[in-house]
Specification:
It comes from Elysia marginata. GO terms for molecular function: translation initiation factor activity. The protein has 122 residues and is mostly helical. It is built from 7 helices and no strands. The chain has 2 domains: 31 residues, no CATH class; 76 residues, no CATH class. The longest helix has 18 residues. The two termini are 21 Å apart.
Length: 122
């Protein structure tokens, strides 16, 4: 979806279907300067929100930690917040809750976990 928006910004013709995604990204970088992909931004914001709610004692914490009773859904199990947090940080959920209590330490984890493959970060 992101690449499609970039192609539209560059006004590339649909006849130029052989333009690779890397070429589109390179052209966007030349036109606007280095940028961060949407997934990287969403990942960091989600990690920050998790840390913020973990330090609180409100309804958001109760909902994110899945301590609300409810019925079972049919079908394939959906990916949960905790699944993303564990996947991105490489930590067990009990450890992330403990680390998130220390704001500075959680910021470091969020920054490290949302780095781009080339080593740059937001």
């Amino acid at each position: 979806m992101e690449i499609r928006c970039y192609k539209r910004l560059l006004s590339t013709s649909h006849k130029e279907h052989k333009i690779t995604n890397e070429e589109v990204t390179r052209r966007i970088d030349n036109a606007t300067g280095p940028h961060f992909d949407l997934l990287t931004i969403v990942r960091e914001q989600k990690l920050k929100w998790y840390g913020h709610t973990t330090r609180s004692s409100g309804l958001a914490k109760t909902i994110i930690q899945c301590t609300v009773n409810g019925g079972k859904r049919r079908g394939r199990q959906k990916k949960r917040w905790e699944d993303n947090i564990k996947e991105w940080t490489g930590l067990e959920l009990r450890n992330t809750s403990r680390i998130a209590e220390d704001r500075e330490e959680w910021k470091a984890v969020a920054r490290r976990s949302s780095m781009r493959p080339d080593g740059s970060q937001i």
